[in-house]
């Protein structure tokens, strides 16, 4: 029987990359919005800057993972020759621009007296680069001949994944930074964004599932390549829903008295134990949501099929 | 520029796979790699009528296929490094191993299942139309090996005079990449893009 499992296992590092990087970038952008908005105390600014490392590391792990699937990484610089022509070159170029901007921002934040205005502009640029990068990942496999990927559901699904995982990961970063905003209206908005994206994405995946039996070549149908697609969508919903519920519970369990004003930092050391508990819970929440996204990215590579003789 | 092309005569091919193994031998390809493959397409059904008589419409036909050195190749379009390139003089598509990063995007995008990443070598490998033999005035080894003379190779205009442009199943519609493969179909051949016939030797050709 023809199966897509070889493709999915062969590209497992890309499954990991496309799971982690988009959510990491969105989390970075959400945390960065606090910087761009301004009005933070020096301590809050410094701690948010510091814990931008969480989404950055998540994105970097994804990128490094993606590089491991290359047959000959020594030729990687030639990838830039295809910028503008190859969707993959565009993706790598956008990744490098984002990580350069975001990485330099993060390093600059360790300066003895970082210039706040420069940081705000730099962060705004990083956020724009991040949005372009996620979009480039969404369209990385936009090739007309790959019939199961050349649909509107693919970029839509990837962006909604990012908007599901990103806010939860951002909550982790904000929690770790001790940012009181994670408790209040901003926290609720992030949870709402994540819930809405999860629900919307389940609908997108369901619509895609209805289309799969009609995508056919002389080997098989796309539906046969992903025989458990319904179960995978359900797993995505359960894992994503559990993660979001867990992070929502941290909102309820957060100490309201610590939420003095937006962007302020929780009192230390009195609430340190609580903060640690909520941060750990947010980490578990992020892991659950990312696991759900991983399942759907695995399904994406399972369903690879060309118009002709490729599966 | 003289674009080269293959011709496949479906009325002559017996599906013996000599072309495939001549290529494997000439290129010294290991298990799991073949630059030319023979796809066995089967369709039809056997039915039993009210009188208990059986009738069948089952049939099968082979298609010998390598890289089609397309006019608008999907592999070169998606290749991030430009390693997968089309020769300006001959139109033959080949891999520059010094540039290839081994990402496998060419394999994913090609609708003719031509390129494949060789993990040991670290780069994509595929049929290059026996470019060296062609430069020496000879034909690709698969063409010369065919005992039924079902394969031919030459200037695209000459091959086009012998058949229609890659318009039989299991091939996709030729409009996707404009392949330089011209086919004289057997009587049972299904039209390009039809999924009514199935490739029944997937383990052999994938």
Structural summary, described in words:
The complex is a heterodimer of chains A (311) and B (206). Chain A is mainly α. Chain A has helices spanning 5-10, 12-37, 42-51, 53-67, 87-108, 116-138, 153-176, 185-211, 222-225, 229-253, 272-302. In chain A, 68% of the residues lie in helices and 0% in strands. In chain A, α2 (12-37) runs antiparallel to α6 and α2 packs across α11 (272-302). The two termini of chain A are 12 Å apart. Residues 257-263 of chain A have low confidence and may be disordered. Chain B has one domain (4-44, 55-205): 2-Layer Sandwich (Alpha-Beta Plaits), CATH 3.30.70. Chain B is 19% helix and 25% strand. Chain B contains seven helices and 13 strands. Chain B has a four-stranded mixed β-sheet. In chain B, strands 5-2-13 form a three-stranded antiparallel β-sheet. A two-stranded antiparallel ribbon of chain B has the order 3-4. The model of chain B has no long low-confidence stretch (mean pLDDT 95). At the A-B interface, α5 of A face α2, α3 and β13 of B.
CATH superfamily of chain A: Formate dehydrogenase/DMSO reductase domain
Mean pLDDT of chain B: 95
Main sheet record of chain B: 4 strands, mixed
- The class by helix and strand makeup of chain B works out as alpha+beta
Radius of gyration of chain A: 20 Å
The end-to-end span of chain A amounts to: 12 Å
Number of domains of chain A: 1
Low-confidence stretches of chain A at least 5 residues in length (pLDDT < 50)? 257-263
As a percent range, the share of strand residues of chain A is: under 5%
CATH topology assignment of chain B:
Alpha-Beta Plaits
User: Largest sheet of chain A, if any?
Assistant: none
Give the SSE order of chain B as H and E letters.
EHEEEEHEEHEEHHEHEEEH
Strand content of chain B: 15-25%
Counting copies of identical and different chains, the oligomeric state is: heterodimer
User: What's the architecture of chain B, going by CATH?
Assistant: 2-Layer Sandwich
* General form of chain B: globular
Q: How many β-strand runs of chain A? A: 0
**Fraction of residues in H or I helices of chain A:** 55-70%
Largest interface: A-B, 36 and 48 residues
Rg result of chain B: 18 Å
